[in-house]
Design a protein that fits this description.
It contains 24 helices and 4 strands. It is mainly α. Strands 1-2-3-4 form a 4-stranded antiparallel beta sheet.
């Protein structure tokens, strides 16, 4: 039984070690920022220099694995029961993906990263056009499919095992095929503690960047005289308070509304820059950039720069840092993506998560990054290049070269503020979910607690200068989690193989219920119009009587079965309850379907009196699709039930299926 702290839904095995580690690391970074940063930086450098190949191979394998799943026979498997439907509209779902996944980063690095590649030492000495082309290529690379593959893998594993296998929405659940019941013990707690700490560190550092950029924007608009700590405190207090209110209102209200507003505002800002900036250059650079990205995809994916030692520092500080950054954020973003993705197929999930955000990112980075580079070379005379060491100010400085600068800067600040809030409130929900092992009902004070902790720690780190040390700590944690993600992929593959086998399993004995003996009776049934009354009569006369006879025969053999009827929809079912595995259910219910108008008017066809026909259809306890049984006799229906019961016993007897059939 889950052990919780009194008067809360917190799980003691997760929240206590998690908070101790979070507070301990933060205390060191606040009290001893310089020494802590030096130690962590040396550890990070060792990992980046000697183990960078782990990141390169892991992230590339994630891409290949997800593309394989999207195109394979497993792509039609749903993240939920076979009859489940998506909870959110497609637009809202995509909007929330952006808001949680890359919101503040898109605003912070849209101009800063391309300008850094263009003006930095990584491609120094090249011609202007080559520098611009390389800057765009590697910006695409860092914000493209690889980044979303990291998020997508964790989100897919979580959604699959949570909604398909009915396990808790927790990282431990992703390893169930490998660890089995051990996920409920120390191993599972360790995975969740890691996820809690990684989520907290990632959100804290990102919120720190967001506060700095908001501060810089307010200063650029002359709303505040200087970017001081008092202003930062006020910004954090107001925005985190609003984020807590949004988190309390739930995903379907606060986060969805804010995400829809923000993606709309971001698109309008992007269109403004496209029209007001060098439009032809932007479109041309995007077109060529996409081709360059596709043609260079595998080369840059596996490039470790081992033959170009001069570019190694750039490689460590950009590509490897990004891969570590996306991996460190994966527990948080993956949990949030899973939370909003119930009911979608694996194919639609992977296609949407990999391709749509990538396409948007490429367009976004082309509009802002290519515009900034063109402006710097043709208009600003290098003024933007000088600011590459001040990335939070680059976006606002770039907008000064476009019309309506004050308005566009205000829109940027608004977008960053909303991204700040959506990152914070989704983070609050995710951390509370991890700390409670996905408790569905948590006290409001717990969400307030996480919001307050985020605000206090962010401000302390900003004031003490420990934000960079915490960021370094986050990047270090990415290495072990990359290994965990490889195990998660193996576990997912094992689960999918079992899943596909379960639903595609044929019957042990192939039976064909029809024979020539009753052909006149069946022809009469075929050419007779099927109304609701006839379908209900089939259920009462044939199905219910068949089930009652089976119930009696099961009872003679010591097996308790029940027969239950319902009126909406009109149905009857035979159920055999079990303690350790899911109940066996075979039911028949009235279904209707629309008849083509051509058939209603056709003379040489059975007479259809209206546009709907009714028929009895089977359904099962494991949500497999049912089928029409209107032409079955009572004995044939009994035979069909026994056929499914034999299949049920065969599947539940196999040890490999226990995670799918057990309660």
């Amino acid at each position: 039984m889950k052990k919780t702290i009194q008067n809360t839904t917190f799980d003691k095995g997760v929240v206590i070690p998690g908070l101790l580690f979070i507070l301990g690391i933060c205390a060191f970074t606040v009290l001893f920022p310089a020494p802590t940063e030096a130690v962590l930086e040396s550890v990070k450098n060792f990992i980046f220099v000697n183990l960078n190949w782990v990141y390169v191979w892991s992230v590339t394998l994630f891409v290949i694995f997800l593309v394989y799943l999207m195109c394979s026979k497993y792509g039609n498997i749903k993240l939920g029961s076979n009859d489940s439907e998506p909870e959110h509209s497609f637009f809202s779902w995509i909007s929330m993906l952006f808001a949680a996944g890359m919101g503040i980063g898109l605003m912070y690095f849209a101009v800063a990263e391309p300008m850094s590649h263009y003006a930095g030492e990584g491609f120094a000495g090249n011609h202007y056009n080559n520098q611009a082309e390389n800057a765009q290529l590697y910006t695409f690379f860092h914000w493209g499919i690889h980044a979303w593959a990291v998020y997508g893998l964790v989100g897919l594993c979580l959604a699959y095992f949570t909604y398909r296998y009915r396990l808790p929405l927790s990282l431990r659940s992703c390893l169930y095929p490998l660890l089995k019941e051990k996920i409920n013990g120390g191993w599972g707690n360790a995975v969740d503690v890691f996820a809690l700490c990684s989520t907290f560190f990632g959100i804290t550092t990102t919120l720190g960047f967001g506060v700095v950029q908001i501060n810089s924007g307010l200063k650029a608009l002359n709303i505040i005289p200087q970017a001081d700590f008092a202003t930062q405190t006020g910004i954090v207090a107001v925005l985190v308070t609003l984020a807590v209110f949004s988190a309390i209102s739930g995903v379907s209200k606060g986060i969805k509304i804010l995400s829809n507003i923000n993606i709309s505002a971001a698109v309008l800002l992007m269109l403004f820059v496209l029209i007001a900036g060098p439009t032809v250059y932007i479109i041309g650079s995007f077109t060529q950039g996409v081709g360059n990205y596709i043609s260079s995809f595998f080369t840059i994916s596996f490039n470790t720069h081992v033959y170009d030692e001069k570019s190694l520092p750039w490689f460590y500080n950009w590509t490897i840092l990004y891969w570590a950054w996306w991996i460190s954020w994966a527990p948080f973003v993956g949990l949030f993506i899973a939370r909003i993705s119930k009911g979608r197929t694996i194919k639609s999930f992977v296609a949407a998560v990999l391709l749509l955000p990538t396409l948007f990112n490429l367009i976004w980075m082309s509009v802002f990054g290519s515009s900034a580079i063109w402006t710097d070379f043709h208009i600003a005379d290098g003024a933007l290049s000088i600011l590459v060491d001040n990335p939070e100010a680059l976006m606002f400085s770039f907008l000064e070269y476009l019309p309506f600068a004050s308005i566009s800067k205000a829109v940027v600040i608004l977008i960053v503020i909303i991204f700040f809030m959506t990152s914070a409130d989704s983070g609050i929900l995710v951390m509370d979910s991890i700390a409670t092992k996905n408790s569905q009902v948590s006290p409001i004070w717990q969400k307030i607690f996480w919001g307050a902790l985020l605000a206090v720690i962010s401000l302390l780190l900003l004031q003490a200068g420990g934000l960079k040390a915490l960021q370094t700590m986050t990047l270090i944690t990415a290495l072990p989690f990359a290994v965990i993600m490889l195990f998660m992929a193996a576990a997912l593959m094992k689960g999918l193989v079992i899943d596909y086998s379960y639903y595609q399993r044929s019957f042990a004995v192939s039976t064909v219920p029809w024979s020539g003996r009753l052909w006149k009776q069946r022809l009469k049934q075929i050419v007779t119009f099927k109304d609701r009354r006839s379908a209900e009569a089939f259920i009462i006369i044939k199905a219910e009587q068949a089930f009652l006879e089976l119930q009696e025969e099961f009872a003679h053999r010591g097996i308790q079965a029940s027969v239950q009827s319902a009126s909406d929809p009109f149905s009857v079912e035979l159920q055999i309850p079990h303690d350790r595995v899911h109940n066996f259910i075979y039911g028949v219910q009235v279904q209707s379907k629309k008849v083509s108008g051509f058939l209603v008017e056709e003379q040489n066809l059975p007479e259809f009196q209206n546009s709907r026909t009714y028929y009895p259809k089977t359904y099962f306890g494991d949500t497999r699709p049912g089928y029409d049984v209107q032409y079955f006799t009572k004995n044939e229906l009994i035979s069909d039930v026994l056929k499914h019961y034999e299949r049920f016993l065969d599947i539940t007897a196999e040890e490999s299926n226990e995670m799918f059939t057990s309660k």
